[in-house]
Every structure is written in structure tokens, then in C-alpha cells.
Amino acid sequence: MNQFEKEVQSKRNDAVDSGVGFIVSFGFFATMFIIATLVEFFGR
Length: 44
Known about the structure:
This protein has helices spanning about 5, 15-40. By secondary structure, the protein is an all-alpha fold. It has a domain at about 20-44.
């Protein structure tokens, strides 16, 4: 066992971090989609 396995920086669950990352990226792309839809709708 090396020193990085003994002294971990974060003991949180990786599934929580990956879930937060997925939600943030999904929210970003959903926001971009909504903005593009509004621009197309009101740009006519």
C-alpha cells in the first residue's frame, strides 16, 4: 500500500461526486437548449 492509499484527501463517496457532475453538466446543456429555443421562437 502506498502513501496515497494511506492518506486520502477526500473520503466522500465517488458516486455522489459523479452524480453532482452529471447534474451540473446536464443543467448547463439544458439551459443552452432552452435559450436556443427561446431565441428561435422569439426571433421569427
